[in-house]
Design brief:
Structural class: alpha/beta
CATH architecture: Alpha-Beta Horseshoe
Oligomer: single chain
Radius of gyration: 12 Å
Strand order of the largest sheet: 1-2-3
Length: 85
């Protein structure tokens, strides 16, 4: 996560991030949502430590347009619907 924080501090306009098959946590998603204001696309397929709570934290990423949670077993369709509002 330190790498992402350093990119954000440097003003890097990171728009696309692929974290498929990683051990990213809900706390990590919270940090991403706050540190990367230009994030447009986030891939979280097969991330088994992400839950509905982590998806809810992505609401802080106001420019997030595409979220891929294919085969993320602890993310429900309800969390995705709430985020889309």
């Amino acid at each position: 996560m330190q790498v992402l924080q350093r990119l954000a501090q440097a003003g890097a306009p990171l728009r696309h991030l692929n974290l498929q098959h990683t051990d990213i946590t809900n706390a990590g998603l919270d940090a991403i949502a706050r540190a990367l204001p230009h994030l447009h696309t986030l891939h979280l397929s097969y991330c088994r430590r992400v839950t509905d709570d982590g998806v809810a934290r992505l609401a802080a990423a106001k420019k997030l347009h595409t979220l891929d949670v294919y085969n993320a077993p602890y993310v429900s369709e309800w969390a995705i619907r709430d985020l889309a509002r």
